[in-house]
Design a protein that fits this description.
The complex is a heterodimer of chains A (442) and B (315). With 442 residues, chain A is α/β, with parallel strands linked by helices. Chain A has one domain: Alpha-Beta Barrel (TIM Barrel). Helices cover 29% and strands 22% of the residues of chain A. Chain A contains 14 helices and 19 strands. Chain A has helices at residues 82-91, 110-123, 146-152, 167-180, 203-208, 216-231, 244-255, 266-270, 281-284, 293-305, 320-323, 340-349, 356-363, 365-369; strands at 16-25, 30-39, 42-43, 51-54, 59-62, 64-69, 94-99, 127-132, 156-158, 184-186, 199-200, 212-213, 235-238, 259-264, 310-311, 386-396, 415-425, 428-432, 440-441. In chain A, strands 1, 2, 3, 4, 5, 16, 17, 18 and 19 form a nine-stranded mixed beta sheet that branches. Chain A has an eight-stranded parallel beta sheet with strand order 6-7-8-9-10-13-14-15. A two-stranded parallel sheet of chain A has the order 11-12. In chain A, β17 (415-425) and β18 (428-432) form a beta hairpin. In chain A, α3 crosses α4, α4 crosses α6 and α6 (216-231) packs parallel to α7. The two termini of chain A are 21 Å apart. The model of chain A has no long low-confidence stretch (mean pLDDT 97). Chain B is α/β, with parallel strands linked by helices. Chain B has two domains: 8-132 and 286-313, 3-Layer(aba) Sandwich (Rossmann fold); 148-277, 3-Layer(aba) Sandwich (Rossmann fold). Chain B is 34% helix and 14% strand. The longest helix of chain B is centred in the C-terminal third of the chain and has 21 residues, at 279-299. The chains are: A alpha/beta (442), B alpha/beta (315).
Chain lengths: 442, 315
């Protein structure tokens, strides 16, 4: 079931048996202590002669999938490239990630896609797929050659970083979707309502004197696009939902039968505008911004009830010097691949707010589903896509501990539960950190 | 540990009182013929003004000089900032002189918080964008205190461009800490959403609400921060609806303005020239308060300082 849209550098197929771990695969209905055999990169088969990995006390989960990462290639390889971004993914338990096209230049044509796919075949540690731009140069005016991009293996289309602000262009993209069949992955923001803003509009912004980004800058665009998707019987995926008003728009769309899915990021599930107080853009400035307490509660509830389909990190590496600027001048974005599962486990599962099996589903099968990627499973016969996690072990999030080239993590300084011991991605070993040694990429 | 003065939110009532009484002592010193004390001799104060300023820049400079500190003034234009040097690099460069205090004025919110990450010198925020201006609020308090006005129970009405005003943000926080009540009066487009909850105080767009205030604090229309504007239909209409002049005031109301004034916009010419308006007193307080702040950050705030004459705490 290896997928032509997900590229990686290949290598020997994984051959190992994980002994005595709790095996948790919500989609396959598995939750029991047993061995997991990986032979020739496939789940199941004869354990004889395979390397034995002691999984006692640990948990095997289907590999995580992230439909929203920024690999900064081409253009800003100083902050991330496909090798480092996919290494961060492997270290975080991800087996497949999809890169956003807001690169320099934007990924908007078949040649650009071919080049990136070639790079991924040369250096990716996990399966890497690509979204191409909805509009040329992400300028919001002319559609890209979506049919050819689809045939080449683009995972979907997105102008992420920018909205498709022109309603007619959005409508045409939805009409053309009938031909290209690619999911439209939407960054929803009314650029005029959000103009000049650097954090969530509200009491904290008023006190800090920072221009606000109102929640409605997001929700009005979601409302528009749900309506257009209904009109054109199209299919849309809403990126990084941050506000309760947006949750309501998504919920209404689903109730009306519109093919709309949505994602939420770990930082929006965990942090709020009050956390911006120290004015550190490296850890607290992102778009959409950290919203209010009520928004966070609504996001958590919507993640549990499925209104929000999945979790996506919006992993957004930035160079240290860019993030050392005063708050309004610094770019938006935080990294996320290496902390996503542990921080959500620590802050939502261990606190009893979110069942572990729901977290696993939302970060694995559901995250794959929203962009039509194969859903990782631990069922016999499946390509091995799994993570072995030591949920009892803890680690400190430090600036020098990342596989990513960038350090702008929202969770620096935290001690997190959940160490990813082993990641097998697309049938081959991608990451190993057994015992106490530091992690090792394959 | 380095002490900074980045926002008044960090000061409790006792600390503000300490600054005010320290300011009083410097006011006494300034009554003398020789208006200079050796208190900070050998200390280095760097004034970094990345954004234009007349009164704040000059008052910090004079305050430092009257305390006998070595004062260096760096301006945004004419310095390496013109050549694209980042705030971090400018701070690191000036930090090489081992300053005791960096006074920073910058156009961006959070510039002082950012600068504090790169130096051990004490940072004094002389205004960071639309965020905070703590010495302005201390001087406002001191100006009233010096006139014998009790801050407890005082009602202060800020009138005008609240959205872009660090003076109003810091002032409101300081006044509230001292037990005063604050009202913000502005066109709805210049009242940031969440203001009441965020700053504590009542928001109104009815200029008649100044009637209840003891102090009418007129804010400057900050054209330079308004981007592509559209906040008010015209300055003419703004002036008609919110401009403060004698006819809108009742006898006994005190009027303050942080300067520089847009005469004929937020304040009438006649009122601007009225000697009863506290603008000049605010400027005078500004230098005294800044002496107290520099002194406090370098020599204070240990309890013993209270009992030592300010002249004797030389380096």
């Amino acid at each position: 079931m290896s997928d032509m849209r997900l590229l990686h550098k290949g290598g020997p197929a994984a051959d190992l048996v994980i002994r005595g771990a709790r095996v948790l695969d919500p989609l396959a209905g598995i939750d029991e202590v047993r061995d997991v055999v990986v032979r020739g990169g496939v789940i199941g088969g004869d354990p004889d002669g395979l390397e034995v990995v002691d999984g006692a006390g640990m948990t095997v989960i289907p590999g995580l999938v992230d439909p929203h990462v920024h690999l900064r290639t081409p253009g800003r390889e100083d902050t991330e490239d496909i090798a480092s971004g996919s290494a961060a993914a492997a270290a975080g338990g991800f087996v497949a990630i999809v890169g956003m096209p807001n690169t320099q230049p934007a990924l908007d044509d078949p040649e650009g896609l071919a080049k990136l796919q070639q790079l991924a075949r040369a250096e990716a540690h996990v399966g890497v797929g690509f979204f191409c731009a909805i509009t040329r140069g992400q300028k919001g005016t002319e559609l890209t050659e979506a049919a050819e991009l689809a045939q080449m293996g683009a995972v979907g289309l997105s102008d992420d970083g920018r909205p498709v602000w022109d309603s007619l262009v959005m409508r045409r993209a939805l009409q053309y979707q009938r031909l290209a069949k690619l999911p439209l992955v939407l960054h929803e923001e009314d650029p005029r309502l959000a103009q000049g803003g650097a954090m969530h509009e509200g009491p904290v912004a008023a006190r800090l004197g920072i221009a606000g980004i109102p929640s409605e800058s997001e929700s009005v665009m979601v409302g528009r696009d749900v309506a257009l998707a209904r009109l054109e019987a199209g299919r849309i995926h809403i990126c990084h939902v941050s506000a309760v008003e947006t949750v309501e728009e998504v919920r209404r769309g689903k109730q009306q039968g519109v093919a709309v899915t949505a994602e939420v990021s770990p930082h929006h599930l965990l942090l709020i505008d009050e956390d911006v107080d120290g004015l550190d853009p490296a850890t607290r400035k992102m778009n959409p911004p950290l919203r209010g307490r009520d928004d966070r509660a609504a996001l958590r509830a919507a993640l549990i009830d499925g209104t929000l389909d999945c979790i996506a990190t919006d992993h957004a590496p930035h160079g240290a010097s860019e993030k050392e600027l005063p708050f309004p001048e610094a770019p938006f974005g935080v990294t996320g691949l290496e902390t996503a599962f542990p921080v959500l486990y620590t802050d939502l599962v261990l606190t009893g707010e979110l069942p572990l099996d729901v977290l696993v589903r939302r970060m694995s099968g559901d995250a794959a589903r929203v962009v039509d990627l194969p859903q990782p499973t631990l069922a016999d016969g499946a390509e091995a896509n799994l993570a072995l996690v030591d949920l009892d072990a803890t680690w400190d999030v430090t600036a020098d501990g990342f596989q990513s080239k960038s350090r702008n993590s929202a969770f620096l300084g935290r001690t997190l539960h959940g160490v990813v011991r082993l990641t097998v991605a697309q049938g081959r070993e991608a990451w190993r950190r057994l015992g106490t040694e530091s992690g090792r990429l394959s | 540990m380095t002490r900074n003065l980045i926002t008044v939110d960090d000061l409790d009532r006792d600390e503000i009182e300490r600054y005010l009484s320290l300011t009083d002592r410097f006011a006494e010193v300034m009554q003398r013929d020789l208006k200079k004390v050796p208190t900070l001799r050998g200390r280095v104060v760097v004034n970094m003004f990345f954004e234009s300023s007349t009164r704040t820049a000059t008052s910090f400079e004079l305050a430092g000089k009257r305390l006998s500190a070595d004062v260096i003034n760096v301006k945004g234009s004419g310095s390496s900032v013109d050549k694209g040097e980042t705030l971090k690099d400018t701070v690191l460069t000036l930090n090489a002189y081992r300053p005791d205090v960096l006074v920073i004025r910058h156009k961006s919110v959070g510039a002082c918080a950012a600068a504090a990450r790169y130096t051990d010198a004490a940072i004094v925020n002389a205004g960071d964008g639309t965020h905070a201006h703590p010495t302005q609020s201390l001087l406002d308090l001191y100006t009233l205190r010096r006139r014998g006005v009790s801050l407890e129970g005082l009602h202060v009405a800020y009138v005008g461009d609240v959205m872009h005003s660090r003076v109003a943000r810091s002032g409101a926080a300081a006044f509230r800490t001292m037990g005063a009540k604050v009202t913000f009066i502005a066109p709805p487009t210049l009242l940031p959403p969440g203001l009441e909850e965020g700053l504590g105080g009542r928001a109104s767009h009815d200029i008649r609400d100044i009637a209840d205030a003891d102090v009418v604090y007129v804010l400057r229309m900050q054209h330079e921060r308004m981007g592509d504007g559209g906040f008010v239909p015209s300055l003419r209409e703004y002036s008609r609806e919110y401009g403060v002049g004698h006819e809108r005031l009742r006898p006994g109301q005190l009027v303050m303005h942080p300067g520089p004034m847009n005469r004929g916009v937020e304040i009438t010419d006649a009122l601007a020239d009225d000697p009863e308006v506290l603008v000049t007193a605010q400027v005078e307080s500004g230098m005294l308060v800044r002496m107290a702040v520099l002194y406090d950050l370098i020599a204070g705030p240990a309890e013993h300082v209270r009992n030592v004459p300010v002249e004797e705490v030389a380096a």
